[in-house]
Amino acid sequence: MYHFVMAVHVLACLSMILFVLLQTGRGAGLQMFGGGGDSLITTPSGSSFMKKFTAGLAVTFGITSLLMTLLQNRASFTSVTSGYSQPQAPAAPVPAAPAPAAPASSDK
């Protein structure tokens, strides 16, 4: 299932790139700041089919993104905080080994 959703997602991405590039720009790049911005809002761009198809691809992209997030294998991923448990009291210090007895000094 995950691989099917991934394939649909990649196809939607590539198709959306293609269809967006096929559409003409509204301001035509504002003619490199030399004009064209005055008719930006009233200029129709592209056919209604291209607009609706691009919107459909965008919706498909969003839905497949959410589905892939839900379908991913979460068993292999761990949270940063999952390795931590309740704080424990520090362990009691290990008693040091007794020092060897000093040899008796012979004062004769």
Measured between the Cα atoms of the first and last residue, the distance is: 95 Å
Which band does the percent of strand residues land in? under 5%
Number of helices: 3
Indicate the overall shape.
rod-shaped
What do the pLDDT scores average to?
73
Rg: 35 Å
- Write down the secondary-structure element order: HHH
Give a count of the beta strands, DSSP E runs of length 2 or more. Answer: 0
Which percent bin holds the helix content? 40-55%
Secondary-structure class? mainly alpha
Low-confidence stretches: none
Descriptive account of the structure:
The longest helix has 24 residues, at 48-71. It is rod-shaped, with a radius of gyration of 35 Å. The protein has a domain at 1-21 and 49-73. The mean pLDDT is 73. Helix 1 (2-22) packs antiparallel against helix 3. The protein is built from three helices and no strands. It is mainly α and 108 residues long. The chain has helices at 2-22, 30-33, 48-71.
